[in-house]
Amino acid sequence: MRWESWAAAVVAVLVFPGVSAAQGWNGGRLKLEADRAVLEYEDGDLSATEAGAFLKLADRGVADVEALVLPGLPESAQPRGRVRFVVTSRVPFSRTYGRTVALPLSRVRTQSAPYLHETVHALVPSRGERVWLSEGLASYLESWVSENRGGYDAHVFTRAGDRGIHQAARRYLGSEQGRAVLPWVGASGEPPGMEEDRTGIARPFYVLSQSLAKHVVDAAGLASVVRALAGGEPDGLRQATGRSDEDWKREWLRAIGAPALADSSLAPGR
Ligand SMILES: [Zn+2]
Fold it and tell me: Which residues are within 8 A (CB) of 218 and not within 5 positions of it... i.e. 6 or more apart?
């Protein structure tokens, strides 16, 4: 490690209490640790101030999300060790693998990284094929935590936030794009082309999934939804909430003002 790297790490530790140690290189990256989060980044990508500030933000985000999801997590999924955030210009999108979160450098620099959304993925393992529940819950908690606890919402797919998400969903349900992805919301799998078409397919799917997840959390409680996702029961939400994904979807569509859709398009191919 060059002297400048050590100096940057030491400055980060001195300037940000809670950033406890500069751990040096890990695969060519600079590494900083806090209580619940580890930050790794390439030398020169972030200044010491930027790195220290982001680590502090991520550490607090992990603490906030952990406090919320813990009551719903089964014993086997209780948090162990820190969440690792790798900030790099080498990934196009944010991704989570186990307890490692990869975030694009440009998003961290411009304070638009979905670190809270990805923290939910890192802390709540997603079993089963219900992408809507996994993405919906992560987006719901990102908005809720940033509005009620601290940190920021990356607004990757919508600026609606927690308060405006049902309205945004209602707007999408009035459009062809929204209705095209609706069969996968509250069901298994994901709409084809989601990776390639972030605007036309991923965006409406994430907005609708967040709205449905919020509806279920508000009615059945966060712990039940976390349990259903981490447990991966084949019958979806039924074991944890007493009602099936389809029941919840019908009630949600009526509640947000799209009753005509409540009895159609409930499953792919139907
Ligand atoms: Zn996600």
Answer: none
pLDDT one-digit tens code per residue, 244-269: 999 999 999 999 998 888 876 555 54
Tens of pLDDT, residue by residue over 81-107, are 999 999 999 999 999 999 999 999 999
Q: Label residue 242 exposed, middle or buried (CB < 10 Å: 0-12, 13-18, 19+).
A: exposed
Q: Are 267 and 187 in contact (CB under 8 A)?
A: yes
What letter does residue 244 receive in the DSSP assignment?
-
Residue 73 in 3-state DSSP? coil
Give the CA dihedral 26, 32, 37, 41, nearest 10 degrees: -60
Residues 86 and 178: their CA atoms lie apart, in Å, by 33
pTM of the predicted protein model: 0.89
Ligand 1 geometric centre to CA of 9 (Å): 30
Expressed in angstroms and rounded, the spacing between residue 135 Cα and the centre of ligand 1 is 5
CA of 94 relative to ligand 1 center, distance in Å: 8
Q: Residues 36, 65: contact at Cβ < 8 Å?
A: no
- What is the predicted pLDDT for the residue at 1? 41
